[in-house]
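Chain A, query sequence.
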Amino acid sequence: MAKAPSPCISVCKYRLGGHCIACSMTKPQKSAWKGLSKKRDRRAFIRFLLDQQAVLGGRFKAWAPAYRRKCDKKDVPCPLDDKRL
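Chain A, predicted structure.
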């Protein structure tokens, strides 16, 4: 099974205290994603990212649909559809 793609949706504008305006990741978090290889680690990271987005406010409503499109384009299951999140 293919790995989930990075949560990055290729906007990469770091504002909001160092968080990307599109996905909410910081530069160190983007680097950390690259080191994750296990499915459960990636799932935990996505859960963390969703929680982080909630804490930072409702600015990230466009991220989930864009990430789903990215997963569809790569023909991999979207982690956002995982019931364990």
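DSSP finds three helices and two strands in the chain. Residues 17 and 41 are 25 Å apart (CA to CA).
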